[in-house]
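Dear Dr. H.,

I hope your travels went smoothly. While you were away I took the liberty of generating a structure for the chain from your last submission, since the lab meeting agenda had it listed for discussion. I wanted you to have the full record in hand beforehand rather than looking at slides cold. The sequence, exactly as received, is reproduced here:
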Amino acid sequence: MTTGRWILLQRYAPQVVMAMVLAVGLAGVVAFYVALRPCVVEHQPGARLSYVLRSELQSVSHGDEGEGLLPQSRFTHYRIHLYMLGLDGEAALLVEYDGPRRPSLYQVMVSRDGRVRLHDGTRLHDYGPTVGYFDFNLLTLPPGLDQYWHAALRYAYPPPEHGSLTAHVQRTQNGARPRFRWQYPAIEWIDRHPEMPSEQRYVQMRDLDVRYRFDTRSGVWSDARIRFIAGVEVDNDPGYRHERVELQLDLLDVRSGNEQQRHRLQAQVRALQAVEAMLVQGDRQGVMQRLRELRGIAQGDPFLDALLHHWYEDVTASPQAQSHAVQVATVRSRGAAEDIRWSLIADGYPAYISQQSERMVVFAGPFKERDAQVLSDMQRLFPRNRPFWQSTPSR
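The corresponding predicted structure, in token form, is as follows:
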């Protein structure tokens, strides 16, 4: 019996070995092609890509021994949802913020090469929306299987004349999820405040280090880490302020939908985009009427539903018991007050008007708690008015 088995083993051993060699070779070929799959952003309409973005700002101290980091950091978290609407790259970008600010909805075009560009309904721009310091266009993808290439990209955070960069990008790791990295020495410009053109200050972003990973199987960015030093000229000693900035982007979820879900998603997003357009065009009555008509249209997507709810709360805001609001302006005419109120709503905050004696007082709010970021935003938007917090102001 043993001899028979030995004879059978000798007879079929070459075939077994050959099959194993072929299997290993086939697996190697498959792995090779997977590793060399091009980096292409491609999703069927109806898909939703969700990310979380964490921003950390840490002040840099200046002493006799050079620069050092102060122990306390400031963290901000964002949720970013990219809705794919059409085969031509038509998409919508929804950004959810920490705190009471209303989510922002942008109409964009997503190219296969990873560029995310704003589309205002009539014109396609060469830049995309920014989320704080973050811009998807910093995560540039190779034109093919290049290990090293020069990428011309448009970063939307600096002014237009300073946002066109040439990045020398290196593929630092191959595979199904290749890694990329590029660095840039400095971006510098003079910032002029729109409300006070005579005031200007020097702004710098230096030591920019961008690292990211792309999943070629899913056609999405997996994660990214961006670091740099942000500097701005200030009035007090030593005359400038520096902060170390770190941005961490991580993919949360990728969801696809069927044809029915795609059509519903398109209708929801386009209806909400129409509200944004009405506000930009100054059609205030149209905004109110449209919001009343849209109650419930975004049901089925929690993020779009939350945006519609925020919209309605912002335009119908009024003072509430045990709440807080930021006083941003005091004017004589109702028309001027309405202009300021709607500019606040356009920036993503609830706002209302309170008549006090012969003057109209404009408030941003109400808010359940005082948020430092809200006051900072109001002071930036209305520097001459010196905005400040009030508790349960009267209407």
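Two observations you may find useful: The chain has three domains: 47-63+70-255, 259-317, 324-391. Residues 27-34 have pLDDT under 50 and may be disordered.

With kind regards,
E. W.
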